[in-house]
Amino acid sequence: MKQVTKISVDELKDMAKRMYAPIVKAVVDVNNGCVVIDAEMHVDEEQYQLEQGSQQVDLWGINLHPHEYGTDNFIEYDSMINIRPSQNNPSRSVHDEKIRQRVDEIIAGVVYE
């Protein structure tokens, strides 16, 4: 697990090889733009971010599909940490379009070819 400011698609592909599916799990702090990747569970990345001072309401779990880079399937909004009825998010997906857009912007600034 590590915090990244920049990472290549090739590095993500190497990380994905260690997972059960061809994905890399990540948690994004939509307030400060911090991205933590490469853990077996989103909750571990979430805990790391909380220990670094992030607020729970700003943390959202995603899966990156490196082989889908450049397509709408690159980012998958699916994580148990996203279930937050108190934030009007009752499922594993991310329902708020503004949060999705912010995650997209952050990931676009971090991942490169």
Report on this model:
With about 110 residues, the protein is α+β, with helices and mostly antiparallel strands. The protein has one domain. It has 3 helices and 7 strands. It has helices spanning about 10-15, 40-50, 95-110, and strands at about 1-5, 5-10, 25-30, 35, 60-65, 75, 110. The strands form 2 sheets. The chain has a 5-stranded antiparallel sheet with strand order 1-4-3-5-6, with helices on both faces. Strands 2-7 form a two-stranded parallel sheet. A hairpin with a 5-residue loop joins strand 3 and strand 4. The longest helix has 14 residues, at about 95-110. The radius of gyration is 13 Å and the shape is globular. The relative contact order is 0.21. The model has no long low-confidence stretch (mean pLDDT about 95).
Write the layout of secondary structure elements.
Layout: E1 2-4, E2 7-8, H1 9-16, E3 24-29, E4 35-37, H2 42-51, E5 59-64, E6 75-76, H3 97-110, E7 111-112
Parallel strand pairs: 2-7
Antiparallel strand pairs: 1-4, 3-4, 3-5, 5-6
